[in-house]
Design a protein that fits this description.
Helices cover 66% and strands 0% of the residues. The chain contains six helices and no strands. The longest helix is centred in the N-terminal third of the chain and has 28 residues. The protein is elongated. This is Transporter.
Length: 150
């Protein structure tokens, strides 16, 4: 006897992967925009006090913040993208766990990867974002294949 299972829309299984790609593109664009438009002459930065003050005012609102804890993420845009990714991946995990035939823990890989840049590890923020997005894209791609029964 064949069991009748609900047929869910295809966007549910692809939602985490699509969001991960969009978040990656926004993060990459934000970082490139920040590095391109806020070029700092580091030699002049160390030797000229007036330039140091001006550069600090510019760098306060970017990815690589010098004032305060420079090893932590301070951009509201990037923090918002990461928190939204955590919410989507937890939602997908709970949704998949409630359906008996598509039960998987793979969306938790993306959840932990979205949490990674929010924890200051004592390394550069850019390196942490790169490592996290590698795991995010891998975890979300694996969750698409794991949820093929939806």
């Amino acid at each position: 006897m064949q069991e009748n299972k609900k047929k869910y829309p295809g966007w549910i299984r692809w939602s985490l992967f699509i969001y991960s790609i969009i978040a990656f593109l926004i993060t990459a664009g934000y970082t490139v925009f920040h590095l391109y438009f806020f070029k700092i002459n580091w030699e002049r930065y160390e030797n000229n006090n007036a330039y140091w003050y001006k550069a600090n005012k510019i760098l306060q609102h970017g990815v690589f913040r010098i004032k305060g804890q420079e090893l932590a993420l301070h951009s509201f845009l990037l923090i918002g993208l990461l928190v939204m990714g955590i919410i989507i991946s937890i939602w997908l995990f709970v949704f998949a766990w409630r359906t008996y035939y598509a039960r998987t823990r793979i969306p938790l890989i993306a959840t932990f990867s979205y949490v990674l840049p929010l924890i200051p590890f004592g390394t550069n923020v850019l390196l942490t974002l790169i490592i996290a997005y590698i795991f995010i894209l891998i975890g979300s791609a694996l969750s698409v294949s794991a949820l093929k029964l939806l």
